[in-house]
What we know:
This protein has helices at about 1-15, 30-35, and strands at about 35-45, 50-60, 65-80, 85-100, 105-120, 130-150, 150-160, 175-185. It is mostly beta strands. The two termini are about 35 Å apart.
Amino acid sequence: MRILVLCALLLCFTQAFAQWGDQPMTDKPSFMDRFYTGGGLGGGFSSTVDWVSLSPIVGYKLNQRVAPGISFMYRYSNYKLYNPHVSTSDYGISPFVRVSVYGPFFLHVEYEYLNYEYPTPTTANPYESIRQKYSNFLAGGGIFQPISRYAGLYATVLYNFSYQGYNTGNSPYTSPIIFRVGITAGFSTR
């Protein structure tokens, strides 16, 4: 199902090559023309765990190609394998840089600090959770599709160079490949 959604998004994105990246910025763009916000909202529901996440981003477009920013993340999870259920909260911060390479395509590099909480049955308390800190270096690419003059959709595929396997230390990631989709507002296409 994820592959079908990704393919559909890519088909939509390829129709906008001429709409993004080819227009130069105005000679003296205002602060608002360079500033952008946005982020993603996610969720998943299954028989073992339900989760909801929010990840706002804020950034500043330095020039036509380079756009650094910062992303914040919060995720609430409810593990149903335990009786009573165990709820956890994860949070993190990620400074990043996006560099436009051609048309709607960009490269993305980020450092992610993640404070991750997961349930772990123990003899003393079978329903407690443990909190661990993770630092990850992520890099990859993405595509940006304008949906109006100052807003657009983005999709990224990142590789986690710090990934050490899912079973080593209860990693927050089940794979070194990370997919993200979100919305930004504030990119000027003048």
